[in-house]
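Fill in residues.
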């Protein structure tokens, strides 16, 4: 078991890293250092550096739902998270034939005493969503769809949230050092004893915590993850609304369709509507290890997504807001996850290295837990993880029969990113869409 005076080094200043530092400091740890490769915070290509992320409790798993409820309560603390959380509500839907996940999520949310509105038919979904538009815009008819509105959720400004908690870490005495790329792990008698950075600086630690997200596999191939986690690129697109359109859609909830993985947000301050598909994603192999391809590594070209996903995004968007789906996409992005087969994170002491702790594999649903996820990693540092949680997140857990219920709609596995199939500016225009009629 660690002592509060033990030096702790955390690699990565994203969701896992900053939240872990915060919770260790709140527990009385006095020597916590966060090292971040990027020269600025939050990192330009980090998945947590964005203007919105979904904040939802709607899981079919009571562990995540309960943890998310705790997170939502803390998101409302403006002292820690100024200008971050927006309680727009989350409209959870799926085709009636694929409703197992949302049915279970509804029962879980109901058991937590949350404010819910059941929407058993497509007509109910249409009426509910249309009411937020106040007759100023059009929503789909939602044929053969069901769902519910969870009023205890919404979205958070992702960059603001991380920046807010980073400021708290510094106020509590933690050190957050950007521009520090870790070259390799230091070892003493086969046990990690700190890190050495590219600039030659060394940081010694009793525990080194790896929170490097989608870069974990490519930065630390020696971890021998045995295929438990892998970096995957997820496709994002945006449309720009006029001021009048933004006013009409400003009160809409986040829309999340578990039937096809599609989700979209209310307009941002810049009148942008962002959308994405929560899928099994794309790998991009270098030396047989999937490695993020981003705006930092590949410039603007690193933002392009496959043409097929441009069409899929627009088609799914048209199934929610047919008129907006006719607008050109003004921007795309590959957002990089660290994915596991079962959708569970990887948190805990490395099975063969007592000085190394992992906090990674967010699976595209970790951001909402920014206020609380670090307490699980802090439990690992202190050696007090309860057995069930320890097994759930273990690096060497058995995943041969596991599945991720939130992505069950996608039958095929991860696909390799093919550069020649990425979109061009012409692909972002409306004629490529397969629009869905509205009544």
């Amino acid at each position: 078991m660690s002592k509060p005076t033990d030096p702790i080094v955390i690699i990565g200043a994203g969701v896992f890293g900053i939240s872990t530092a915060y919770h260790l400091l709140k527990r009385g740890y006095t020597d916590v250092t966060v090292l971040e490769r990027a020269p600025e915070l939050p990192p330009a290509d980090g998945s947590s550096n964005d203007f919105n992320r979904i904040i939802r409790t709607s899981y079919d798993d009571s562990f995540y739902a309960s943890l998310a409820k705790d997170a939502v309560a803390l998101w409302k603390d403006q002292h820690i998270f100024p200008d971050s959380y927006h309680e727009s509500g989350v409209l959870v839907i799926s085709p009636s034939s694929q409703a197992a996940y949302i049915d279970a999520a509804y029962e879980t949310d109901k058991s937590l005493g949350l404010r819910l509105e059941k929407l058993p038919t497509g007509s109910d979904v249409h009426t509910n969503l249309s009411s937020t538009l106040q007759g100023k815009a059009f929503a789909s008819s939602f044929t053969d769809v069901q769902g519910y509105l969870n009023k205890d959720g919404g979205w958070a400004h992702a960059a603001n949230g991380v920046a807010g908690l980073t400021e708290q870490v510094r106020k509590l005495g933690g050190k957050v050092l950007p521009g520090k790329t870790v070259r390799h792990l230091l070892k003493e008698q086969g046990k990690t004893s700190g890190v050495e950075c590219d600039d030659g600086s060394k940081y010694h630690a009793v525990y080194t915590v790896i929170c490097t997200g989608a870069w974990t596999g490519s930065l630390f191939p020696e971890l021998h993850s045995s295929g438990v986690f892998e970096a995957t690129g997820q496709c994002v697109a945006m449309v720009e609304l006029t001021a009048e359109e933004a006013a009409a859609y400003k009160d809409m909830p986040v829309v999340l369709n578990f039937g096809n993985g599609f989700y979209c947000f209310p307009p941002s301050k810049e009148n942008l509507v962002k959308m994405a598909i929560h899928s099994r994603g794309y790998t991009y192999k270098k030396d047989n290890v999937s490695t993020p391809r981003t705006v930092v590594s590949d410039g603007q070209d690193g933002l392009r997504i496959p043409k097929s996903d441009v069409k899929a995004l627009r088609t799914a968007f048209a199934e929610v807001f047919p008129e907006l789906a006719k607008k050109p996409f003004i921007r795309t992005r590959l957002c990089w996850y660290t994915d596991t087969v079962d959708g569970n994170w990887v948190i805990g002491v490395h099975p063969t290295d007592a000085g190394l702790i992992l906090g990674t594999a967010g699976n595209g649903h970790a951001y909402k837990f920014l206020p609380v996820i670090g307490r699980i990693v802090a439990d690992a540092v202190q050696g007090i993880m309860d057995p069930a949680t320890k097994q759930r997140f273990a690096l060497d857990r058995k995943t041969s029969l596991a599945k991720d219920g939130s992505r069950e709609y996608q039958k095929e596995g991860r696909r390799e990113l093919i550069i020649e199939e990425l979109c061009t500016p012409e692909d972002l225009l409306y004629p490529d869409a397969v629009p869905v009629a509205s009544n």
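Residues 62-75 form the longest helix (14 residues).
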